[in-house]
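so my prof wants the structure for this chain in the tokens format not the other one, which i didnt know existed until like an hour ago. anyway here's the sequence
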Amino acid sequence: MVKIEFGPNDEETKAAALELRDQLLMNLSKRTGIRVVDALTAMTLDPTYFLRGRLRMAAGKARLSISLVLSETGEPSFSQNYQGETADIFAFFDETAAQVNADIRNHLNNFDAERVKHMPIEEMGISDLLARVASTGQSGKHKEWLDARKYLDRALELNPDHPMVLAMSSMGDILFARTRFEEIEPCKAELLESALNLALVSMPKSDYLFAVRGMCYLFGKKDFKSAKRDCHHSLKLNPTYYFGRLILSMVEIAEGKFDDALATLEQVEGLATEKSYEPMRQVNLAVCLYCSGDFQGCANALDSVIQLQPGFWTLHRFKAIVLRKLGDTDAAAANDAVADALSKEPTMFFLKPLLRAERAALLEALVPTEGF
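here's what i got, hopefully its the right format
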């Protein structure tokens, strides 16, 4: 990362550019899977990209222009402008740094996924295999996740102790169990926890690893206290981490603290957008609103996720249930008809929530029955 140019050339703008650069460097350095180097202090450089920026401030407003440039050719790989009010300059720093971090994360994930899309699996290294798996996160289709599992298995063959391989494999196991509405056996939960503990020895500052171990404590061990602790630590490492807050909302749902979960999900909405997780956020929001008795709000959340992902039976069945609560039987029947016409496979962004016994009927109506 090179220095951020700035204008006008005064002390206030210079200080703002330095602060924003430090925050970007800190946020990007926390991201697993890439190495970020400070070009102003590094002794040697051999980067794939240079991250360049220019900050302009005037009349209570600021605009940051960011470019990610390929070092070999000088071609821009990614560029974006970010602007906002400077009345609260620290809020501008926080929001802008979070958005840049998420946009670059998404860009590099998509770039890597496209790069390895047609590469034979036997020619892939660890980073190639993980990029192939990460690209599957854009899909909610169970068959595509099953296909991605072979890339994780290959990565485990190459390096069974690699921290990111252990983390992504553990997350995959948890997702498969919960989207199939299955429980994780105690012995399996112990294995998952051991794998994640091993990964954290190598990467103790990974926000992602702590969030995944939080999932393990939540769904594997039903240890809400430890799950919440890991989620909070993930957010301590990265206060704007979308996935960390998403898992925290699941813990709060399990605790029956729906107001807290709604507040957490609202905070997620205000953070930088990581598009692959948005359907999961909307599903969690719908579950919260349903359990809180806000059936219209629940229907609205389901409308939002159906607009993003219309081809999943679980969403239409859930909406039919909610519409009956609202007394709209005709619309409910129409949604049931859509659900009946779709495959009853697991929906990979619809994890079976941990709810109390009085919600058993809802969960029973949403159990997948095909594809596994």
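also thought this was worth mentioning. The radius of gyration is 22 Å.
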